[in-house]
């Protein structure tokens, strides 16, 4: 998976979870608990808004208890994971820097040794430094790519786990509301 796609996916998941957290924090609107999680609930038996609110709160608690996941906590956790992934990506960007210079020094030493045997130490050192620099840079790029790939994989796994937890929570929340005579879709 490429870096751009992984970061875009992470950003989309984070925005969805931040929307949930912001909806929880805002006290002035008429959003129901279910609507903050993009769960659509219709009172099939004519329940009034107060009854629906109490039923949603009860089902929310039941779903948290039965799944072990709270979507509002997951939103905060996802933000922390994104910050950690960003820091890890910055560190991964530093992997391999200076490998070209290290390769040049090692190549120069090897080239000087070979040049001494062949009769021209300076020329051998120069050739060895050039070869070492190119090889070192290639190894540096490869190390950076491996580190970046590892960070991307870990971030994708965390996002998938968080998405699965949210999905399981919504299923439990919905089952509870359906048992209380609501029609539910998410």
């Amino acid at each position: 998976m490429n870096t751009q796609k992984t970061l875009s996916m992470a950003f989309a998941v984070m925005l969805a979870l931040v929307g949930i957290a912001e909806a929880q924090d805002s006290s002035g609107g008429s959003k129901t608990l279910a609507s903050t999680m993009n769960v659509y609930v219709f009172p099939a038996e004519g329940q009034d808004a107060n009854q629906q609110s109490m039923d949603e709160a009860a089902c929310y608690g039941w779903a948290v208890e039965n799944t072990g996941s709270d979507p509002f906590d997951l939103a905060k956790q996802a933000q922390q994971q994104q910050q950690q992934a960003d820091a890890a990506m910055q560190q991964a960007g530093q992997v391999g820097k200076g490998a070209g210079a290290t390769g040049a020094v090692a190549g120069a030493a090897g080239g000087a040794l070979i040049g001494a045997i062949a009769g021209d130490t300076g020329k051998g050192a120069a050739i060895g430094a050039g070869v070492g620099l190119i090889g070192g840079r290639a190894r540096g790029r490869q190390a950076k790519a491996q580190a970046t790939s590892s960070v991307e994989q870990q971030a994708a796994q965390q996002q998938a786990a968080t998405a699965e937890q949210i999905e399981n929570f919504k299923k439990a929340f919905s089952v509870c509301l359906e048992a209380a005579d609501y029609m539910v879709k998410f």
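The beta strands are 40-43, 182-185. The chain is about 80% helix and 5% strand.
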